[in-house]
Design goal:
Layout (H helix, E strand, L loop, with lengths): L13 H11 L4 E5 L2 E4 H17 L7 E5 L4 H13 L2 E4 L6 H11 L1 E6 L8 H8 L8 E4 L9 H9 L5 E4 H4 L15 E6 L9 E5 H14 L9 E3 L6 H13 L3 E3 L5 H10 L4 E3 L2 H9 L11 E4 L7 H7 L2 E8 L3 E6 L6 H4 L3 E4 L5 E5 L13 E6 L6 E2 L3 H7 L6 E9 L5 E6 L4 E3 L2 E3 L1 H9 L4 E11 L2 E10 L5 H11 L8 E4 L5 E3 L4 E3 L1 H13 L1
Parallel strand pairs: 1-11, 3-4, 3-5, 4-8, 5-6, 6-7, 10-11, 10-12, 12-13, 13-14, 25-26
Antiparallel strand pairs: 1-2, 8-9, 9-19, 14-15, 15-16, 16-21, 17-18, 18-20, 20-21, 22-23, 24-25, 27-28
Helix pairs in contact: 1-2, 2-3, 4-5, 5-6, 8-9, 10-11
Length: 538
């Protein structure tokens, strides 16, 4: 992947990107989805038609429209249509329920929602109906459905139960509109919001401009090798999350085709990789394990490139055994997914360590002291701060939170613990709230977790710090064989690590408590701390 890829000029708007790709390769493939093939010319024209249809519904520059869809090409068609209007797409997680959409969409002032009411037998109409009283700005529901599905009876029943007058229109009708030729988008035009995970506080609404999205997409296409000849990517991370969206934009900017599926399915993933000769995929830790567990052949996808964030360092043996190549990455909603990637070196200890080198040539990373706020030298852990063209414009309608996270010089304070290296790369260690101060030393819990995961019978491990007699001690939870000998596991840790890192208890748990975001599933460490405190109290 170290072949040089020439820089490509960034177009002046989202609409201009599609026009460029359609002019260069009108019959080239943008998306494969089910039996549907979407060419660049079709993607451009469909987005122009939907832009006209949205304008006829009263959507204008600055309006917010929620895209409450799984991965279908129509998500991207609508996104580019909104960009042409100068409107803002509100990326929405299909797993959200009434409380979440009521909170986020009310603060965003969502005017219209594009939804698939009958997707996967999830009761989207009831979820939306329960949140309607929180959404005074909502005026229109745009109903997507598979070909031949017809209007949703569940959505009709929900609307009949409420006195709220809402306009209802079929998405297919928008695509029958005349193509819009004008373009109200510029590089400075706000175009997209993501939500932070909200694991410790109310989710924040992260706002990006067309410029930040386009510049980052062009840097991703170079940094991740999407623009190399003969590439194809697979899209099973949701468009509505920053990692899935950045993957999609990197491929779109490169003019590289994407095989798209609604959600992750290991069997379908294997089929798509073979059918479309997929070469590069961004996945979560769990997705990689499930993909290869479903494949009986020892090396099912020779030469496949995988990109994974946290936990990627645990894949050294698997990638060698199953014939793929993996690199670690880093990203967040505020700096966008795929912000950085590790160099493609042979040493897996470097290549698989979370962090890497920013994909944007002008991006910079530094660390700030957790005690006095000073900028730290290379190698010393502190709060990671990021700058560069992918950094967000601010938190929507929240200047106080924006000023705390984004300084006047454009540095974003991430809340993540890590350190920089002299070669321009950085290492992510953990969220600052998850880092452990043990016997006066700052310890990354992943170091202890990795040690315990080496013990036979352990599947996964999470380590939290809890108070015991005025000092913080580590407590570990693991999934796997419940009959493992705790004393033997503790001795394994004593043999491998300094004594202050050895967990006070190592406890079996059937599954970790989690919270699901559009990007991934995160462990709720606050609940683990409560369980650990109770265990120590006994």
């Amino acid at each position: 992947m170290n072949q040089p890829i020439p820089a490509v000029p960034v177009p002046h708007s989202l609409a201009a990107l599609l026009a460029r790709n359609a002019a260069a390769n009108p019959n080239g493939i943008a998306f494969w989805h089910e039996s549907q093939t979407v060419t660049w010319a079709a993607l451009l024209e469909r987005s122009q038609r939907v832009a006209t249809g949205l304008a006829n519904l009263g959507i204008t520059a600055g309006d917010r429209v929620a895209l409450w869809l799984p991965n279908v090409p129509e998500w991207m068609v609508a996104f580019f249509a909104l960009g042409r209007l100068g409107a803002i797409a509100v990326a929405a997680n299909t797993r959200y329920r009434s409380r979440e959409i009521g909170d986020i969409w009310s603060r965003a002032g969502v005017k219209a929602v594009l939804l698939w009411p009958d997707y996967r037998h999830i009761d989207f109409p009831d979820i939306l109906g329960a949140a309607l009283q929180e959404l005074p700005a909502l005026q229109c529901l745009i109903e997507y459905g598979e070909d031949g599905s017809g209007p949703s009876t569940a959505l009709q029943a929900m609307l009949a139960r409420t006195a709220r007058p809402l306009q209802r229109v079929a998405y297919a009708d928008l695509e029958r509109s005349a193509p819009m030729q004008g373009d109200h988008g510029t590089l400075d035009t706000p175009c997209l919001t993501f939500n932070t995970s909200g694991t410790t506080s109310k989710p924040k609404i992260v706002l990006h401009t067309q410029g930040s999205v386009l510049r980052h997409g062009h840097n991703v296409m170079r940094g991740f090798g999407f623009a190399l000849p003969g590439q194809a990517v697979m899209q099973m991370l949701p468009f509505g999350g920053t990692y899935g969206f950045s993957l999609a934009m990197g491929a779109l900017c490169a003019g590289t085709p994407s095989a798209v599926h609604h959600t992750f399915d290991a069997t379908v993933a294997g089929q798509l990789i073979r059918r479309h000769q997929v070469t590069r995929i961004v996945m979560t830790y769990d997705m990689v394990n499930r993909l290869y567990e479903a494949e009986p052949e020892k090396i099912p996808f020779p030469g496949l490139r995988l990109f994974v964030g946290v936990y990627s360092h645990t894949f050294a043996a698997l990638e060698k055994d199953r014939g793929f190549r993996m690199q670690s990455l880093y990203g967040s909603s505020e700096v966008q997914g795929l912000y950085s990637v590790q160099d493609d070196v042979d040493d897996p200890k470097v290549r698989l360590d979370p962090g890497g080198v920013p994909v944007a040539p002008g991006a910079k990373v530094r660390t700030r002291s957790l005690t006095d706020g000073t900028i730290l030298p290379h190698g010393e852990p502190g709060e990671l701060q990021f700058s560069g063209p992918s950094v967000f414009a601010g938190y929507y309608n929240d200047p106080e939170a924006t000023s705390k996270a984004l300084d006047a010089e454009g540095w974003f304070s991430s809340g993540d613990l890590g350190f920089t290296l002299a070669d321009g790369s950085f290492r992510f260690m953990s969220r600052i709230g998850d880092a452990l101060r043990l016997s006066g030393y700052l310890v990354n819990p992943a170091e202890i977790e990795e040690c315990i995961q080496e013990f036979p019978g352990v599947s996964q491990c999470q380590v939290v710090g809890v108070d015991l007699d005025g000092a913080t001690v580590p407590v570990a939870f693991y999934t796997g064989d419940p009959a493992l000998d705790e004393s033997a596991m503790t001795q394994h840790c004593r043999d491998a690590m300094a004594r202050y890192k050895v967990p006070k208890r190592i406890l079996h748990i059937e599954s970790f408590p989690t919270v699901t975001s559009a990007n991934n599933t995160k462990v709720r460490r606050v609940e683990l701390r409560e369980l650990a405190q109770k265990a120590l109290a006994k």
